[in-house]
Amino acid sequence: MRLRTWAYFIAEAFKSIFRNGWMSLASVGVVIITLFLLGSFMLLNYNIAFLSSDIKSQIEVVAFLDEGVNRSQVDQLYLKITGFEEVEEAVFVSREDALQRLRAQMGEQGYLLEGYEDQGNNPLRDSFEVRTFVPEEVPELAGKIKQLSGVSRVDYGSEVLDRLFTVTRILNWVGVAFMIALGISATFLIANTIKLTVFTRRQEIMIMKMVGASDWFIRWPFVIEGLVLGLLGSLVPVAGLYFGYQYLVEWVNFNIPFLALMPTAEVFQFLLQTLFILGIGLGILGSSFSLRKFLKV
Amino acid sequence: MIEFISVTKRYPNGAEALKNTNLCIEKGEFVFLVGSSGAGKTTILKLLYRELLPTRGTIKVLGRDVVKLKKREIPFFRRNMGLVFQDFRLLADRNVYENVAFALRVIETPTREIEKRVMESLELVGLKGKVKSKPSELSGGEQQRISLARAIVNQPAIILADEPTGNLDPDTSIDIVNLLRVVNLRGTTVIMATHDQEIVDRLRKRVIEVEDGEIVRDQLKGGYRHEA
Ligand SMILES: Nc1ncnc2c1ncn2[C@@H]1O[C@H](COP(=O)(O)OP(=O)(O)O)[C@@H](O)[C@H]1O
Ligand SMILES: [Mg+2]
User: Fold this and answer.
1) Structural domain of residue A111, as residue ranges?
2) Complex prediction ipTM
């Protein structure tokens, strides 16, 4: 179609948006709320993933060995442990190393440990510190290592891990449920706004059909109206979240320096596209519902 | 040019508005479709512009089998006919010029042609001096003339008018019918459904009378009622 025709469609769409001012505002409002929530959840998720990868990297399986294992038994265990495919690396920590480390951690109170250095007196055990590729595999791997002979006890941050995974999962499901409900109401409201436009323009539509305007010529202004409503609805959350997040990152950097949030530019690369596409998508979905039901062309 | 072959139209509620009808209209004819209210006149016109599909039978218009038209072909098929209705069907928020131009704009006529053709049409119906008026500022007769200007602006082969004088007083009705005659003289086929006895009797054109969905009379130079 000609450029002039597209200009006409767009002009018609905007006329309708202003004519149905309150309905348009309500539709845009719900799109804004939906996408604002979606955006916030995405930001939260990104940062949880970012932070937990930090926490997860500190989580490892510690396998304490039986008392009195000898050098060759240790070597064999090392081979067996690194033989598991989940294992990224395993480090042997002898009881002497462990004592040293403990003393370093105790700092000034380190003198309390004096007298335990002798082989016979050292209360600590030899151990392996095992790191996995994927944190989710830790519990299973811990079980396998425990079965090995020469291993007396296995430790891992099971509770921390389990809780983190559970919280993220629940949060995500709640978020998804919320967003679906809101997305449906946004679509519904857009559909209703378009229905109103179809109704106010029914005389025009009737005449267009009468004089032989093509179906798409009649449809386009409504499709564009939905698209513009969706697009307007995504602009506000995109801008709001962008500046809000930037401010948050600065505030956190200043006040809670050890908490590392994801940098704004990195997060918004994906967020921006997602929100725009979803906004436009909701708009087109809404108008196509309405067209099928009310326009009948 | 227009042909109904054994056309039956039954509405979804079971009402049989047209019963096994045969009909033939040649290019350039002026035809009155008469009959009392509910006889089936509107149904015939709607079948012609493919607002309705027949339940049975074949309808040919301008060499096309109307029943076989694809959905996306219907708008292009309609560009061959100008429609006029009793209720004018104008856009209240646009002036006379825009009402007529609308019909050309929505079928994407090039801009430079629009003005020329709109002014020609308005001149023919005698409204050239009122291009800026809104429909509400004009009389019923003038409003129907806008609607007629819109119907002819795309130079259609056929004009279908469904009781175009139904809302007008007798003198104004005559004006409108005279305009339809002018359009007809320029080669356009005109089919006008009416139950305006005075007009039919005065013009002495071909009269097709419908009664209860059946054609009961088809008479050249006829009157509104059957004359022995
Ligand atoms: N949409 C419809 N649904 C059911 N019946 C209809 C419909 N339109 C018309 N009819 C019936 O079909 C018959 C013919 O109607 P119509 O063609 O409008 O007559 P006319 O135009 O001669 O007054 C009438 O009995 C009318 O009640
Ligand atoms: Mg009728």
Assistant:
1) 60-155
2) 0.92
